[in-house]
Each structure stands twice: as C-alpha cells, then as structure tokens.
Amino acid sequence: ATTALQEFPGDAEISGLRTLAEQGLERTKESRRLFDEGQRCVAQGDLPRATELLRSSLNLDPRAPGLRDAVVNVLIERARACGEDNWQDAEPLCQEASELDANHAAVRALRSNISDTKRKMFVVQCLTECRSLVAAGKVNEAEQRIRAAREMYPNDSRLEQYEATLQREMRELLRQEQRRKDQTALSENRRLAEQN
C-alpha cells in the first residue's frame, strides 16, 4: 500500500484500503492480546474472566484459527463445573457453545447430560407431587399430573411404573366405593323387607 501511495499520491481508494488494512491489523493484534490474556485466565482457573476475554477476542477476529474452539472449550468447562444439580446455570453456557459449534463432541455430550439431568429432576419432582396428592386423597389430580408428565417423557420407566401403580390404586378405590354402595343398597333393601 505504501508503494502504491508513492506512485499514486492522494488516491482515495488506495488510501482507504491502507486504512482498512491498518485497522484489520490492529483488530488482529488486540484479538491476539485478549486471547493470550484469556488463556492465562484459563490456566489460573478464572473461567468467567477467560470467557469474557475469549468472546471479545472472537468478536474482533472471528476467523482466527483455534479461537472458536478455545471459546467453546471454556464454555464447556464452565458448564461442567456447574455440576448436575445446577443445570439451569449450565444450560445457557451449553447453548452458547452449541451456537458456536453444534457438532463439537463435548457440546453434544454436555447437551445430552443436561437433558438427562433435567428429565431426572423433573421425574423426581413429579413423583413427589403425585405421592403428596394421593396422600391428600386427590387421586384424580395425581393421575392428571402423571399423564401430563408421561406426555413430556413417554419413555421414562419410573413415570410408566408409577402410572400403572396409580391406575391399579384407582381401580381398587372404585371397586371399594362400588362395594360400599352395594352394601348400603343391600342394607336398605333388608330394612325395607323387614318393615313389610
């Protein structure tokens, strides 16, 4: 660009290209600085700060080799650090990593783990609620709740098992209710027969 400007001094197009090239170099240098600082933070275990720095680096130079992978790896590491009990914090990190590279093996594995954890926690909560409803004599509400849960997770064996148990209990309650009605009617018929 310098040679071209010497040959064509004052050429606006060449001058503009030179400015663009200089700005690109500055962005690349700043991106590299942020990347190096982000890597230091990773080494020190400061993953939130590393994430910020690496994101900024990627924003400045989205085509830099290895940068996208570095951001994905830090996001995955942070999500894993959240643990199974805190999937709510891990999920947005996983989502961001997925947006950067949906085919990354660690992203796919983490997405699957989060999904499994969500399902397990949902099932435990649902079964606890259903048992409380049954204990309170609200069997119909429990049946509706378990049916809704089965629609969300139709292949979950614990939900399937509890639904079958609940249906047996409901049949037994209906049988007992019918038996009480029959006994009441029989007693009434006896009383009427004795009066006549």
Give a structural overview.
By secondary structure, the protein is mainly alpha-helical. It has eight helices and no strands. It is rod-shaped. The model has no long low-confidence stretch (mean pLDDT 88).
As residue ranges, the low-confidence spans are: none
- Tell me the fraction of residues in β-strands, as a range: under 5%
Task: Please give the count of helices.
Answer: 8
Let me know the average pLDDT: 88
Helix content: over 70%
Order of helices and strands: HHHHHHHH
Global morphology: rod-shaped
User: How many strands, what sense, and barrel or not for the largest sheet?
Assistant: none
Distance between the termini: 121 Å
Question: What Rg, in angstroms, do the CA atoms define?
Answer: 33 Å
Structural class: mainly alpha
Count of distinct strands: 0
Features of the shown structure:
196 residues; mainly alpha
Summarize the model shown.
The protein is mostly helical. Helices cover 85% and strands 0% of the residues. Helix 3 packs antiparallel against helix 4.
Secondary-structure blueprint:
Elements: H1 2-7, H2 12-44, H3 47-60, H4 67-82, H5 87-100, H6 105-135, H7 139-152, H8 157-195
Helix pairs in contact: 2-3, 3-4, 4-5, 5-6, 6-7, 7-8
